[in-house]
UniProtKB/TrEMBL annotation, chains A, B:
Residues 164-331 form the Peptidase M16 C-terminal domain. GO terms for molecular function: metal ion binding. Residues 21-143 form the Peptidase M16 N-terminal domain. It comes from Thermus scotoductus. This is Peptidase M16. Pfam families: Peptidase_M16, Peptidase_M16_C.
Length: 404, 404
């Protein structure tokens, strides 16, 4: 079981104790592309890169060396809805790790002379997306799906990145790096008391309540990006229910029937029977307050039309319902995946943080298992009838003159 | 501790018992690109895809449904040196899982009518590589580095895939899907006795000793692939020592200094100080009997020359040795990574199988930790002096007229 408390400064702290020789955390800071100022798109990415240029008594090299000396395996990056700092390490260094992360978050130097390298890395990341056709397509698809800032790409935009000044980014850091809306989820072999002591330096963190816009969808439509790629990339988006909806598990099980294993409908119809693609899949891609299901396929120019047709048909066919056998396979598949993911403290810290962000609470494994078990064929098929997967946003990228 | 036995038919079976509610295995079948017949490149990929088209009493759909009903999370694919079948599931279905995998391996239907879809998927995979510049570059780099078949791409070649006949692929399956050279590594909450009972159906598997060619390197040289990509991709390859070499841990620690964390030399010099790239890394890329170190960077056309220069300089500078501080950080980093990876039974089954393939035995965690600890500064720097990272194979992909 996990314990959750909101600390006096607003930071939400959660721990799941595990008898295991390691500790993992995920820290979500409420600074993402969705709440960037208009005109400063990509600021979250710039801030995250800039933070590592030194904090408190440590310069960039000192900070990196200090964490590497403690054996902290870490990742961080700005995303659509928040900036994520993830770390895993051995329990004996817990206090020193949080002292350093508190320095990073509360007392970064944000030095003038490091800014150009940060900007340059951000521009490189944006440029590298141009060589990744599937990623490029889904970035554009999200832009089309949302009227609200939820369609933004966390990498930012070239013009905006080029125009950003150190002053504006510093100011944005001060506003959006706030504990009110931040979440720290920890899993591993330490006690609640020890954790509370270790995060003490984070209590000095102060700030306003985080701001989040309301998601707003556009009218579904189609678009094409003409590119001289070898394959044609196909992306679909459908409005869906999110984890806060009582029908969530019905939707999740239907997705498993659609794309959960080698016997799933998309894999069978698109790849196994027809050999249309190497990769095809459907996956949840929603934001807080707005569920979204997306589907992907990549194929030749000649087979793009047929691939699109089969994908659309399989999505639509869900409204006719799934079979008892399909549902039973979907339940076994989801439950096994749950058990396997739960094995890892890093993955557990991740799902704890995600639950706290999306739902404001952590679902115990037993609750999820119970809810999957309790969702019967009637419930799934009633949901699918009432919520048909029709009328999607459709995006194509490639040499696509002949598809429409 | 793990237990290893060679079964009467030649299959090497290993188990590491864990008190954990799940089981994972990796099965290595000695059919990879390296031992494909000359005019049948890509055959390993075709076989692996074709196997799933039905086995014993089950057709393709029946086979996929049977495994999905048991909740088996699985992956499989043909690689350079072997074909890998990986699976994770709950212990209660152990016997049935191995019964199904034995069907797949020993009694596949390899039906004529499924062959064209398999070929088509393989061609799609090859085509999709054309849209992935970094992958394309490293595929070409390996082709250049090896004179032996170790330079082949497991995806095969277009002409060869198009010409392959069902008969030739069936014949190749019979020859190369052999237990003599196959490895089955299992980790999880089951006993040795139970495992032995469960794998019984695999005992009927028979075949000749697997064939592996000896790796042979070319003379280091440079090449460019001109492509209209947004970024220029840079790939380097250096001959290195493998895990069978007594100097392996010295080399591994040097690699950690070079590219192990945010304070590593490549990250600091190429990305943090100069902002030349978004991603830069060095990684082991050897085969059995031939160690290899590769390095990657992606940057703009304008900064490609400088990026290449800095990468080469950092590699060469290793010969001057690393510092006591760098080594100590590298040791902590490697040891923490070991503990974290050991947490997962899937990752443990993977390293067991890899050890058995590369070394013929499984290194206990304590042995690796001990060897890392025992490798002192003298040993690392003596290795680096005697084995300088100079004179690499250099590959560039992009609009690279101005680099040389």
């Amino acid at each position: 079981m996990s314990r959750v408390e909101r600390l006096p400064n607003g930071l939400v702290l959660a721990l799941e104790e595990r008898d295991y020789p390691g500790v993992a955390f995920q820290l979500l800071v409420p600074a993402g592309a969705v709440n960037e100022p208009e005109g400063l798109l990509g600021a979250s990415t710039l801030i995250e890169g800039w933070l590592w240029k030194g904090a408190g008594e440590l310069d960039a090299r000192g900070l990196a060396q200090a964490l590497d000396s403690l054996g902290v395996r870490r990742q961080s990056g700005a995303g659509l809805e928040y900036t994520l700092f993830a770390a895993a390490f051995l329990p004996e260094v817990l206090e020193e790790v949080f002292r350093l992360y508190a320095l990073l978050l509360l007392n970064p130097r944000l030095p003038e002379e490091g800014f150009e390298a940060v900007r340059s890395v951000a521009l490189q990341a944006l440029l590298s997306q141009e060589d990744q056709p599937a990623r490029k397509l889904f970035s554009e698809l999200r832009k089309r799906v949302f009227l609200s800032p939820h369609g933004r790409d966390p990498l930012g935009e070239e013009e905006s990145l080029k125009r950003a000044t150190p002053e504006a980014v510093r100011e944005d850091y001060r506003r959006r790096y706030t504990p009110k809306g931040a979440i720290l989820a920890v899993a591993g072999g330490i006690s609640w008391e020890r954790l509370l002591g270790a995060v003490e330096p984070l209590l000095a963190w102060e700030g306003e309540e985080a701001f989040y816009p309301t998601p707003l969808l556009s009218e579904p439509h189609s678009f094409t990006l003409k590119r001289p790629t070898a394959q044609v990339q196909i992306g679909l988006a459908y409005s869906d229910v999110g984890p806060e909806d009582p029908r969530f598990y019905a939707a999740r099980l239907a997705l498993e029937v659609l794309s959960g294993g080698m016997s799933s409908r998309l894999f069978t119809e698109v790849r196994e029977k027809r050999g249309l693609v190497y990769a095809v899949s459907a996956f949840p891609a929603g934001v807080k307050g707005q569920g979204l299901l997306m589907a992907y396929g990549g194929t030749t120019k000649e087979r793009a039309r047929e691939t699109l047709r089969v994908m659309l048909a399989e999505m639509e066919r869900l409204a006719e319902g799934v079979t008892e056998e399909e549902l039973s396979r979907a339940k076994v598949g989801l439950k096994t995946a749950l058990v396997m993911a739960d094995e890892s403290i890093r993955s557990r810290a991740g799902s704890m943080a995600r639950d706290l962000y999306m739902l404001g609470r952590i679902r115990p494994l037993s609750e999820i298992e119970g809810a999957i078990e309790a969702t019967d064929l009637r419930a799934v098929n009633a949901f699918l009838r009432a919520h048909p997967y029709r009328n999607p946003w459709v995006g194509l990228l490639g040499e696509v003159d002949d598809v429409s």
